[in-house]
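Researcher: Structure for this, please.
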Amino acid sequence: MFALDDRTGNVVTTVAVFAAAASILYLARGAFFILLLSLFFAYLLEPAVGLLQQHSLVGRGSRTWAIAQVYLIATALVGIFAYVLGPHLVAQIKSLNVALPQMLDDLFSGRAAAAFGERHGLSPAQQVGIRNWLASHRDMVAHGVERGALSAGYVAARAIWLFAIPILAIFLLHQGRQMADAALQSVGPAGERTLLVRILRRVDTMLAKYTRAQLALAGLSFVFYTISLQLLGFPYAIALGLLGGALEFLPMVGWIASAAVMLPIGFLAHAHWIWMAGLVVVWRFLQGYVFSPRIMGDTLGLQPLIVIVALMVGGQVGGIAGLYLSIPAVAVLRIVWVEYFSARNSPGRSDQPVMQAQV
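Model: Predicted structure, token format:
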């Protein structure tokens, strides 16, 4: 009878466990996505919680009091933002929703091409060329609009679950350190525990820096797009600026998606879309070579080609959630890979850095 030796049995068991875990994560990917967003949200709040825990005038030294104060301050800031920009944002979204069918009809019927030609002094032949080009790409544009509408519907249908993010983040902020310590204590041999400590410490640092850097870059993009769109006479400037800031969470392709939405709207609304196209390119240059290196540094340690492939695979496997999570997931796998082979090549390594979990 065929029998497995101990080593082969361990390998088979490990593969089976990982396969089962991957299957469970895929089936419960919606809940897992919310949990990961809660973790990222906790990373954003951790510096403020730590600061108030040490220096607060009320309940100094108490993490519970620090978390409560941070949530109170955050709620006040969100309330101010909603009071100042909320009505304008809601009005612009409603207006865009009403105007979009007419814009598409003008685009496909040729009226947009005729109006563009008259404004810029194009000849009738040139106007016909633009109209024919738009007609030949009608299916591609319609497919893009359909995909965008489906994505927006997907987000809207699951928006209610976003309210669970700050609630789950409270538990992660309050009990994250204990959960990390419990996970470490469950590991058997000291060598494996040391390796796990190193991996968790690097993952913890990477995710904290990545989350805060992405929020800073998204905020800068929101301000830039909103101000630029307002100055160039674009309609729906706040709504489009908010969209551009949100898409900044997609490295390499977020700015392209922003331009693909903003510029056609500017073209159809007779705004200065050519100037906006130039500003988008300039902003991408500033983001890629000035702001991003200074804010994010070498947090991920990934090559651009790996980032693009990860985005493609993540989008195919997990849709919107896969796009947002593909980059940090690949970065985590890289850390595990590097630390594992570093441990194999240095079996006598004895340093045991103390893990300082952020959440």
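Researcher: Any notable elements?
Model: DSSP finds twelve helices and no strands in the chain. The two ends are 51 Å apart (CA to CA).
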